Amino acid sequence: MKVAILAGGRGSRLAEETEIKPKPMVEIGGHPILWHIMKIYDHFGFEDFVIALGYKGEVIKKYMVDYCSISDNLTVDIGDGTVHHHDGERPDWTVELIDTGIPTKTGGRIKRLQPYIGDEPFMLTWGDGVADIDVDELVEFHRAHDKLATMTVVRPPARYGHIEMSGDGTGEVLEFSEKPQLGEGWINGAFFVLEPGIFDYIEGDDTVWEHEPLENLAADGELMAYRHDSFWQCMDTLREKHILENYWESGDPPWKIWDDGEPIVSTGLLDFGEPVENEEETVTNGSQ
């Protein structure tokens, strides 16, 4: 089963990073978040990827083309221009890199991947979110219900502590819990499993996947929700990038479900600590 990843957005809320590269190439722990997402699927044996490119797609192309050179030890013969790659661990991935246009909306990008996906079920996710999701269980859930689409739903990470106060107007705090998730409801967490019939729900480049296609799939009884109640985190803002960096610096990032035998090496970018927020900026305890 192929894995489609949408990697064409601008990431305007990460402008500090995305002036020179697309959002999926923003690094966590020295690797693009796109790499982390692919490693999650690879852990479950899914190694065929179709990546929808858009904004600065050439950066992703160059990364994939140069992957072995970046990751391996090399011997370069300057005289004849040959390069010898020493033995190293390489993922057994096949990656199709498809230009889907810069202004194309999410649904349009999916539609443009149809010739490369074919008439088989496939998985789909965004290039900016990670989770400790059991992909095998997700696929099994999808196959059991015989519908066109499965969407993973998650609890959104709450940004602030939750306070329960007395109703007598005194201001007495009855309960305080730091950043709870369980009371926040369920949201679209991506990590879809889809049948090729979903392409019929997408009109063209201007179609937003999260609007008419998902709404109509739900109205037709063809959309099912797979509940993932463990770790999930998107990376829409610099604050959320820092959260993921902090997890990596802790030495035990919850989405790193793979074991490649390599120790987690600190990037030296952040000291691990809880994010501290105010109205103007986000900093991290122990970092400047």
DSSP helix fraction: 10-25%
SS summary, helix count: 9
The largest β sheet comes out as:
8 strands, mixed
Poorly predicted segments: 265-288
Please tell me the overall pLDDT: 84
Distance between the termini: 45 Å
Structural class: alpha/beta
Radius of gyration: 21 Å
* Strand residue content: 25-35%
- By DSSP, the count of extended strands is 18
Shape descriptor? globular
SSE sequence, one letter per element:
EHEEHEHHEEEHHEEHEEEEEHEEHEE
What does this structure look like?
- It is a single chain.
- This protein is of the alpha/beta class and 288 residues long.
- The chain is built from 9 helices and 18 strands.
- The longest helix has 12 residues.
- It is globular, with a radius of gyration of 21 Å.
Throw out a few tags for this protein.
288 residues, alpha/beta, 8-stranded mixed sheet, 9 helices, 25% helix
Summarize the model shown.
The chain is of the alpha/beta class. Helix content is 25%, strand content 25%.
Detail the topology: elements first, then pairings.
Elements: E1 2-7, H1 15-18, E2 27-28, E3 31-32, H2 33-43, E4 48-53, H3 57-65, H4 67-71, E5 74-77, E6 82-85, E7 94-99, H5 106-112, H6 114-117, E8 122-126, E9 129-131, H7 135-145, E10 149-154, E11 162-165, E12 173-177, E13 187-188, E14 192-194, H8 212-219, E15 223-228, E16 232-234, H9 238-249, E17 275-277, E18 282-284
